[in-house]
Amino acid sequence: MLKILSYIFRNGIATVANPCPPLEEDADGMPALTENSCSGTGCNECATACPTDAIEVSNEDGVGRVSLDLGACIGCQLCIDICPTGTIVRNRSTRLAKKQRDDLILTNHESVLANSLKRSYEADVKNKIRNIFGRSLHVRVVSTGCSACDLEIGACGNPVFDLERFGVHIVASPRFADVLLVTGPVGKGMRDSLLRCYAAMPEPKIVVAAGSCSITGGVHKNGYAEANGVDKILPVSVYIPGCPPHPWSIIHGILLGMGKVQS
Q1: Closest by alpha carbon to 88, among 68, 61, 58, 114?
Q2: Looking at residue 60, what is its pLDDT?
Q3: Is residue 243 part of a domain?
Q4: Which of 85, 174, 195, 236 measures 20 to 30 Å from 78, CA to CA?
C-alpha cells in the first residue's frame, strides 16, 4: 500500500479528468470538410486517391460538392494531403460516433448538412427520454476482423481512459450483456456466431459498430466473403468511425448509446 501511495504522489494521477478531448497536434485524426470552395470534378483528386471509395465529388450550379463517408474512411490521410483547395482537412475531434448511419456522411452542401443536424438533434432528444442504460452498461465484444479495434477497446480499460468509471464493464458472456460491440467486417464465416451471441443477450439490447470495417466493410467490402458490415445483419444503434477508432472515440460511442452525451 505504501508503495502504491508513493507512486501516486510521485507520478500524479494518470486518468484524464475530462473525457473525449481533442487529439494532440501531432495526431492525424479523421478528415473533415471546410467551407473552402472545391474545384469539383475538374480536380477529383481526393476521390481518385481514396482506397475505399469513401469520397464522391460532383458539380452543382458551378460549385464543387464533396460527400465524404466517415463510415467507409480508414483515416489514411491521402485526401487531406492531396486536396489543393483545403476543402478536406484534419479533424482532431474524438467525438465522432453517431446514432444514424446517414450522419456519418459529411458534405459541404448546406441544405443536406442542416437536415443531418436536425435529424441528429431529434434522435438525441428521443433517445435521452427513453434510454434505460444511463447508469451502467455491460458490453460483450465480438471481433470479426484484424483485432486492431480490439486493442483500442482494451486500451479503454487502462488507467488513462478508465472506461469503468462511467459504469461500463466488459463481460465474457452475452447472457449478461446489454451491448453487443462488434468489430471487423463480419464475413460469412462469422455470421452464425454473431447471431447466436446476439440471440443469447437479454432484452433490451443494443448493437454498436466500432470501426470502418464493422460499418461498411472497409477495405474488405464487396469481396467474396461478403464482409460489408454488421448493419446488414443486425440493427445498429451507434456507429463509431475510424480504422481503428481512438479509445476516446470508442468511449464517446458507448456514452452516446447510454444517453450520457449527445451526437
Answers
A1: 68
A2: 81
A3: yes
A4: 236
- The string of DSSP codes covering the chain is -HHHHHHHHHH---S-SSSSPPPPTT---EEEE-SSPB-GGGT-HHHHH-TT--EEEEEETTEEEEEEETTT-----HHHHH-SSS-EEEE--S---BSSGGGGEEES-HHHHHHHHHHHHHHHHHHHHH---SS-EEEEEEE-S-SHHHHHHHHTTSTTT-GGGGTEEE-S-GGG-SEEEEES---HHHHHHHHHHHHHSPSS-EEEEESHHHHH-GGGTTSTT----GGGTS--SEEE-SSSPPHHHHHHHHHHHHTSS--
- Residue 202's alpha-carbon distances to 46, 113, 222, 236, in angstroms, are 45, 37, 32, 16
Of 196, 191, 253, give the one whose Cα is nearest residue 228: 191
Report yes or no on 30 lying in a domain. Answer: no
Q: Which residue has the cell 461498411?
A: 216
pLDDT tens for 149-161 read 999 999 999 999 9
Query: pLDDT class for 263, splitting at 50, 70, 90?
Result: low
Report yes or no on 198 lying in a domain.
yes
Neighbours of 114 (CB within 10 A): 10
Q: Quote the domain boundaries for residue 162.
A: 129-258
CA dihedral 180, 132, 100, 81 (to 10 degrees): -70
Q: What is the DSSP string of 38-54?
A: B-GGGT-HHHHH-TT--
Residue holding cell 442504460? Answer: 133
CATH label of the domain that carries residue 247: 3.40.50.12280
